[in-house]
Amino acid sequence: MFLAGRQPDAPQEALQVLDIVLRELPTARYSPVSRSFYSPNLGRRQRLGDGLESWRGFYQSIRPTQMGLSLNIDMSSTAFIEPLPVIEFVAQLLCRDISVRPLTDSDRVKIKKALRGVKVEVTHRGNMRRKYRISGLTSQATRELSFPVDDRGTVKTVVQYFLETYGFNIQHTTLPCLQVGNQQRPNYLPMEVCKIVEGQRYSKRLNEKQITALLKVTCQRPQEREKDILQTVHHNAYYEDPYAQEFGIKIDEQLASVEARVLPPPRLKYHDSGREKDVLPRVGQWNMMNKKMVNGGRVGHWACINFSRNVQDNAAKVFCHELAIMCQISGMNFAPEPVLPVLSARPEHVERALKARYHDAMNASKPPGKELDLLIVILPDNNGSLYGDLKRICETELGLVSQCCLTKHVFKMSKQYLANVALKINVKVGGRNTVLVDALARRIRLVTDRPTIIFGADVTHPHPGEDSSPSIAAVVASQDWPEITKYAGLVSAQAHRQELIQDLFKVWQDPQRGTVTGGMIKELLISFKRATGQKPQRIIFYRDGVSEGQFYQVLLFELDAIRKACASLEPNYQPPVTFVVVQKRHHTRLFANNHNDQRTVDRSGNILPGTVVDSKICHPTEFDFYLCSHAGIQVGFSSFAMCSFDKMC
Ligand SMILES: *[C@@H]1O[C@H](CO)[C@@H](O)[C@H](O)[C@H]1NC(C)=O
Ligand SMILES: *[C@@H]1O[C@H](CO)[C@@H](O)[C@H](O)[C@H]1NC(C)=O
Ligand SMILES: *[C@@H]1O[C@H](CO)[C@@H](O)[C@H](O)[C@H]1NC(C)=O
Fold first, then answer.
1. Which SUPFAM superfamilies is this protein grouped with (predicted)?
2. In angstroms, what is the span from residue 23 Cα to ligand 1's centroid?
């Protein structure tokens, strides 16, 4: 009835039943992880480093579409813990032979973090391979550990116990033991008798090296991915799946064929003083050659600070100079010299150095006390926590615009890199790189006919295992009209894993002022009015990162907040709101019907940016469509990322 349009709401339970039926067989064959299935035999397993490896697998779900019920299959890869002896795992994790030097405190923390919750099996009892889950690490070395063996207070050391009970002579007596079982009655297991159980997915944060390695195995040209998907469907042999048969489910082994349209690229306006005053991107790409930013920002006072041990004498100075020149060439009003010579500081002293530098620069500027417009920061190539600390201090304590550059780029100093960084700096100091010709000419329907503000909102959640970190909500809103190019942003920490954005609208009691209202929407609406002199008569709200199960909850709560924020400005102020949910993490892949047709694919084989699909494979009632919003980008190695297709509802 739902698929035939005779019932408005999707019958979630019925869909779930069909989904479960089709998952039954793969669940027995493979390792299920949420909606995907992985196996060490579905393609090569690949080492990711530090005791992790990648397994290949596939995503599978039943979806209601305008064509009826569809089976959504996509290839995927994820990280698993290598089924190594624990001693070997720890050696890989610490990158050294652990029998040589005793563990340091930080080694211990690292091991504990990596192993907590991991299942191991014991190897010292022949075929009795009992499994345990690791709950911690002992603070003492194995040779110092003892425990009561009976109720009369007889105590035995772990070393003695293993020798007497199992005839096993523990070698690594200086290492701590693994703790299994609960905290009241902990069980001690020497690392050397434990092996990690195969098939455990690793869901904590990967380091940069592991991410790069994982991307390398995930990245596939579209043509290969399509082949693998078809092969997976064939291999899964749904036609002879006894459960599917029992429920009368038949699955077509062909891919669905849909019609698509390719939207024309928007023409981009640059400054009239440049040799090229506008540009029409081709296949999602264009560059800044012979063009100037449409509004170059001003950087009168700037300084540079270096945290990288490897950056030699003149390199930092030369780099900053080249960057300043590139900013000028691109159209910014950028002072050629910093207000102070390059300062150096150690990463450990980031807070002290930034604050001292800030005051020095204030004193050195003319007139004194004038704030810095920009701080250029040279960072070591691999210290994410320094980046985080620096941004926190600059943005929440000093109110300082900063541009970080990695050491490797300071060495290479390529023109392309400098030009890209110039674009970032310009936006950060309030300039505009380009605007849409159609916006200036007021030719964008439902945007340029009357004052319209465009919002974007997202929430980032901490990784599993980082249980005390807050979720972070971010909201941006356009601050120019009709161009809709310049955005102001606000961020706000909120409760752990909370998807609904709490700070969109706020009411509180103030002892002096009585009832006060605020929140991110209200602030951004006010700053729009200040910047443009007009009240928005229309709101378009793009909301990222909402899972399908939460659509209506988010829509109701946040739309209500938008309405209240408007009403708090003026009693009858209720501009129409369009609420658009954007999803990047879905598994619908679109391939060109003919991979060799140059009119429908780019050089990597991805379908063209601007491709829109809004029929057949879309939801029967949710007004969704797929948009390939940018070109498939090369990600460093010789393969290409699959074009990201944004699904919008
Ligand atoms: C940059 O800072 C590091 C760390 O303080 C220092 O070792 C290095 O010598 C500095 N480089 C320059 C050019 O000052
Ligand atoms: C900067 O000026 C302030 C106030 O005039 C003064 O206290 C401080 O010592 C000066 N700092 C430097 C490094 O000159
Ligand atoms: C990374 O930066 C932090 C400061 O954020 C510092 O404490 C730490 O020592 C740095 N690590 C290295 C390896 O330099």
1. PAZ domain (SSF101690), Ribonuclease H-like (SSF53098)
2. 57
70: nearest Cα among 591, 587, 623, 607:
587
Q: How confident is the model at residue 640 (pLDDT cuts 50, 70, 90)?
A: very low
Looking at domain 86-196, which CATH architecture does it have?
Answer: Beta Complex (2.170)
- Ligand 3 centre from 382 Cα, in Å? 9
553-567 tens-digit pLDDT:
999 999 999 999 999
Residue 637, pLDDT score: 32
Residue 616: exposure state from Cβ atoms within 10 A (0-12, 13-18, ≥19)? middle
- Dihedral sign for Cα 354, 356, 360, 363, please: positive
Q: How far apart are CA 480 and CA 340, in angstroms?
A: 35
What is the number of the ligand 3 atom nearest to the C-alpha of 390?
5
| Residue (of 305, 308, 300) closest to 354 by Cα position | 305
Q: Among the atoms of ligand 1, which is closest to the Cα of residue 314?
A: 13
How large a percentage of the chain has pLDDT more than 90? 73
* φ, ψ dihedrals at 64, nearest 5°: -75, 130
Ligand having the closest approach to the CA of 342: 1
Q: Which amino acid is at 391?
A: K
Distance of CA 374 from the midpoint of ligand 3 (Å): 23
Delimiting residues of CATH 3.40.50.2300 domain(s) in the chain = 296-428
Where in the sequence of the chain do the CATH 2.170.260.10 domains occur?
Answer: 86-196
Ligand 1 pocket, Cβ-based, cut-off 6 angstroms: 306-309, 311-313, 316, 344-346
Residue 592 has a pLDDT of: 94
Instruction: Tell me the per-residue pLDDT of 497-526, one tens digit each, with 9 for 90 and over.
Output: 999 999 999 999 999 999 999 999 999 999
Q: What's the predicted TM-score (pTM) here? A: 0.87
Q: How far is it, in rounded angstroms, from Cα 483 to Cα 528?
A: 13
pLDDT of amino acid 630:
85
**Helix (H) / strand (E) containing 323:** helix 315-329
Residue 22's pLDDT is 96
Atom of ligand 3 at shortest range from CA of 350: 4
For the segment 137-152, what is each residue's pLDDT rounded down to a tens digit? Answer: 999 999 999 988 888 8
What is residue 647's predicted lDDT score, i.e. its pLDDT? 61
Fold (topology level) of 296-428: Rossmann fold (3.40.50)
Question: 33 and 78 in contact (C-beta within 8 Å)?
Answer: yes
